[in-house]
Amino acid sequence: MRIVIPLFERFTALDAVGPYDVLTHLPGAEVVLAAAEAGPVRDGAGRLALTADAALADITACDVLVVPGGPGARDYPADGPLLDWLRRTHEGTRWTTSVCTGSLLLGAAGLLTGRTATTHWARTGQLATYGATYTPERVVVDGKLITAAGVSAGLDMALTLVALLADQLTAEAIQLLIEYDPQPPFDAGSLAKASPAARERLRTL
Amino acid sequence: MRIVIPLFERFTALDAVGPYDVLTHLPGAEVVLAAAEAGPVRDGAGRLALTADAALADITACDVLVVPGGPGARDYPADGPLLDWLRRTHEGTRWTTSVCTGSLLLGAAGLLTGRTATTHWARTGQLATYGATYTPERVVVDGKLITAAGVSAGLDMALTLVALLADQLTAEAIQLLIEYDPQPPFDAGSLAKASPAARERLRTL
After folding, report:
1. Nearest CB to A51: which of B49, B174, B189?
2. Which of A187, B25, B41, B99 lies at 20 to 30 Å from B35 by C-alpha?
3. CATH number, span A2-204
4. Interface A-B: count of C-beta contacts within 8 A
5. pLDDT, tens digit, for every residue of A90-102?
6. ipTM (interface predicted TM)
C-alpha cells in the first residue's frame, strides 16, 4: 500500500509529520514524501525543510493521499503543478485525505464540489468558495474523502484512517506507540473554547 | 531567544516537529535545527529527512534546548558528538527539555542524575540507569529540566514551555492556532488505557 504526502513551499510541518508518524507504523504501508521536484521543501515558518524523496511526476498512482496545509495552501496558484496531479491521482485512490488548509488544495483542484468537509477554523469561508459545505467537526468522512481540522487534527485523522485501512486494534496499538494520551495544559484549542483574550493575543502574534 | 532542536540519525520526526510548530509562533524566538553536520538527517522510520540548518559545533550557546527521541536515541554512542555538546550547551540554557526517549540522551550526557524525569513508557528502565527517578506524568518539570512522555507528549510540553517563556495567554493563542483540541478516536494512548489486545497487537507491528 502506497501512501503519498505531497509537499509544497510554505506547508505546515506538523500537518505532514503528524500523520506520517502514525502511518509509517501501519503494516504493509510505504509512505512517500513527494513534491514538484525531489529535494528539500521549506515550511511556512521557514526554519525547517523536509526532503521530498520523489517528484510528483514520477508518481502516477497511490492508494492514499494525505495533503497537508499551510500558508502556501491558501494562495496556491491555480496553474501550479500540484492541482492537476491531485485531480489525476485522486481518481485512483482508496482514500484522499487532508489536514488543515490542505482541504483548500483539494477544493482548488475541484474535488470538494458538493461535498462536506472541514479545514482550519480561520479558513472556513475559503472552503465554501470551492462548493464544499463546511462541517465543524475534527475529522469529516464523505465517501472516500477525509478532511481534518487545523494542524494537530491530523493525528486524529490518521488514527481514524488506520482503523479504516486495517482495523481498530491496529490504530489503538499505534496510538499507544506514540503515547497519544493528550493532556493539553490549557483548554483553548478551538474557537468555542478560547477566551476573547486568547483570540486577541493570537491576532498580535 | 534562540531555541535549538538537535537532530541525529534515526530520530522520531514528530518528537521534533510537534514542539517546532508550537515554538516557531513564540514572538522573538528563533528556532534552529542542528545536527553533527548541516544537511539532511534521516528519521527512524526512514521515509523522511529533516534538514539541519546548522552544525552543532557552530552553536556554542542557546536559551532553550529541545531534544527529540527516537530509535537512534536509545543506543546513541557514548562518544558520539551530541552528548558532549549537550553537556556544554546545557550549562548556559534557561530551559533544557526533551521529548520521548530524548530524555535518554540527557541521561547519557549525565544531566539527569538525581533528577525526576519522564520518557516513553517502554523505556523507563533505561532512564533509571542514568540515576533519574522516573515519574509517570506527561510533562515533568525539575528545575530547568523539562521532560515529556512519548512522541505526541511534545505538544503538551511545548505549550507548557511557551507559558514559562512568555505567558499562559500566548500559549493559549498558539494552542488555538494549531487547533489543539484533541479528540482521539480511541482511548488507548497509555499503558493503563490500552487493552491487552492492543498491547499484543503493538508487539506484532
Report:
1. B49
2. B25
3. 3.40.50.880
4. 254
5. 999 999 999 999 9
6. 0.97
